[in-house]
Amino acid sequence: MKSRIFTTVFVLLSSLSFAQYYEPMSRRSASSSDSASTSAESTTNNVPTDVSRRSFGQRLLYGGSLQLSFGSVTYVELAPRVGYLVTNDLIAGVGVNYIYVRYAENISYPGSPEVSFSLYGGNVYSTYNLPIGLPLALHGEFEAMNLELWNPQEFEYQREWVPALRLGAAYVQRIGSGGGVYLMALYDVLHDPNRSLNPFSPWTFRISFMF
User: Fold this and answer.
1) Which domain holds residue 65?
2) Where is the signal peptide, in residue numbers (predicted)?
3) CATH code at 129?
C-alpha cells in the first residue's frame, strides 16, 4: 500500500514538473518565428536599422545631383555629395559643385566667337526628415561658388567667391532607413542680383539622390 501511494505521488510530481517546463511545439515554433522576424526587422542586408547601432562607415550616404543640357547652350553640372546619418532622421554632409557652360556661335551674329567658362565650389548641408508621417524634409545649405564677375573699375572679368545660404523643404521618397530621392525647393537668403549664380531669382529647384 505504501509503495502504491509513493508511486502515485512520484508520478503526480513528475507530471507537474514536466508540465511546468514543457512548451507546446506550436508555441515554440511561433516564438522562434517571432524571434527570427524581430531579428530580420532589426537589420537590413546585415546593416542595423537603428542608426545608433551602426558603425561610422555604415552611416555614410553617397549621392548628389546631375544636370546635362546640349545644343546652342551646353550646360553640365556635377554635384556629388557625402552625407552622414546623425540620427535616423537627420543627415549632415559636404559636397562639391562643378559647372561647365558653353555658348555656341550666336545665330543672330554670324562669326561671333564661342564662349565657355567653368564654375566650381563646395557646400555643407543638413537635411531633416520630418517624423510626422508625411514624406517631407527640411533642408539647409551654405555654399561658396567661384564665379567670373565683371569688375567695372578694372574693366574686366575677375574670379570671386560668392556665398549662398539656401533654406527650404523637400518632398522625399525614402529608400531603406537612410537616404532617398529629394525634390527640393530652396530660397537663397543671401541672393544678390549682381553677384549670385542665378541673377534672376533666389529660388533653386533641384532633384537630389542619397543612397
Assistant:
1) 51-210
2) 1-19
3) 2.40.160
Grid cell, residue 12, equals 503526480
How many Å apart are CA 124 and CA 144, to the nearest integer?
9
pLDDT of residue 124: 98
Same-domain pairing of 39 and 23 = yes
> What is the rounded CA–CA span in Å between residue 62 and residue 85?
11
Angle at the Cα of 14 from the Cα atoms of 13 and 18, rounded to 5 degrees: 120
Cell of 47: 546593416
Q: Give the cell for residue 89.
A: 532622421
Residues of the chain with pLDDT under 70: 1-45, 105-112, 177
Torsions phi, psi of 5, nearest 5?
-60, -45
pLDDT of residue 107: 54
pTM to 2 decimals? Answer: 0.73
Residue 160 and residue 69 in one domain? yes
Write out the H or E segment, with its range, that includes residue 25.
helix 25-42
> For the CA atoms of the chain, what is the radius of gyration?
31
pLDDT tens per residue across span 22-48? 344 333 333 444 444 444 445 656 778
Q: Is 199 left (phi over 0), alpha (psi -120 to 50) or beta?
A: alpha
- What pLDDT score does 78 carry? 96
What are 39's three cell numbers? Answer: 531579428
C-alpha cell belonging to residue 189? 537668403
Residues 124, 139 within the same domain: yes
Residues 6+ apart with CB under 8 A from 92: 83, 84, 86, 124, 125, 126, 127
